[in-house]
Automatic annotation (TrEMBL):
Chain coiled-coil ranges: none
STAS domain residues: 8-91
Organism of derivation: Sulfitobacter sediminilitoris
InterPro entries with a match to the protein in the record: MlaB-like_STAS (IPR058548), STAS_dom (IPR002645), STAS_dom_sf (IPR036513)
Protein name: STAS domain-containing protein
UniProt cross-references to Pfam families, sorted A to Z: STAS_2
Amino acid sequence: MTDPVMPEGKLDLTAASALHDQLQSVADHDVIVNLEKVTMIGALCLQVFIAAARSAKAANRSFQIINAPDTVLAQLKSMGFTPKSLAEGSV
């Protein structure tokens, strides 16, 4: 098992490429994403998480989202997601 991926701050357009790279670097393992230091999540980074979750599922690996702050939970909810549905790669 690898260490959790721990993005920080705003996960917006400018963060999407780095987030994708972080998730690609751990794609050969079960993935845990710790959102405790995230202040905002935008649609593009949400899509990065969905793609990573789907890739993990296709490879029979787990993908978990943990410690999302209330503000991030509210943003996910406004886009129709929960940490669980996001981790499942559901749309």
